[in-house]
Amino acid sequence: MKKIEAFIRPEKLTDIKEMLNQMNINGLSISQIMGAGNQKGWKEYVRGAEVEYNFLPKLKLEIVVTDEQVDELVDKICEKAFTGDVGDGKIFISDVLDAIRIRTRERGLDAVK
């Protein structure tokens, strides 16, 4: 199993959720975050003083899938999240050693299906 963490623009969430439904992937966790990367933020003037906003709103998606689903899912997230501008996001993939459904105590892939 793999855990995919995708940091995306908030306006891309609807497209990605529809794509996950089409792929029959459930178990999506979403966190609202603030982040800074190459995009650098923006400057505004508040009461005549320059204020620099270094962190921009992003969404962090966490999805656990089988090893076989990873490449297709990553390709589709890249496709749906792409704008071509700085700040489109990043995807991180890590191994999941085990998963346990608390209610039934199912383990492994049975716990994430």
Give me the secondary-structure topology:
Elements lengths: L1 E7 L4 H10 L5 E8 L6 E5 L2 E5 L2 E10 L4 H12 L7 E7 L13 H4 L1
Antiparallel strand pairs: 1-5, 1-6, 2-5, 3-4
Walk me through what this model shows.
The protein is α+β, with helices and mostly antiparallel strands. The chain is built from three helices and six strands; from the N terminus they run βαββββαβα. It has helices spanning 13-22, 70-81, 109-112, and strands at 2-8, 28-35, 42-46, 49-53, 56-65, 89-95. Strands 2-5-1-6 form a four-stranded antiparallel β-sheet, covered by helices on one side. A two-stranded antiparallel ribbon has the order 3-4. β3 and β4 form a beta hairpin. α1 (13-22) packs antiparallel against α2 (70-81). The chain is elongated, with a radius of gyration of 17 Å. The chain starts with a strand and ends with a helix. 12% of the residues are buried. The mean pLDDT is 91.
List keywords for this structure.
4-stranded antiparallel beta sheet; 113 residues; two-stranded antiparallel ribbon; 6 strands; elongated; single chain; alpha+beta
Summarize the structure.
By secondary structure, the chain is an alpha+beta fold. Helices cover 23% and strands 37% of the residues.
* Helical amount: 10-25%
In terms of per-residue confidence, which ranges show pLDDT below 50 for 5 or more consecutive residues?
none
Largest sheet: 4 strands, antiparallel
Give the strand tally.
Answer: 6
Decide which structural class fits the backbone: alpha+beta
Strand content: 35-45%
Number of distinct helices: 3
**Termini separation:** 11 Å
Strands in their spatial order, largest beta sheet: 2-5-1-6
Mean pLDDT: 91
From the spread of the alpha carbons, the general shape counts as: elongated
Succession of helices and strands: EHEEEEHEH
Radius of gyration computed on alpha carbons: 17 Å
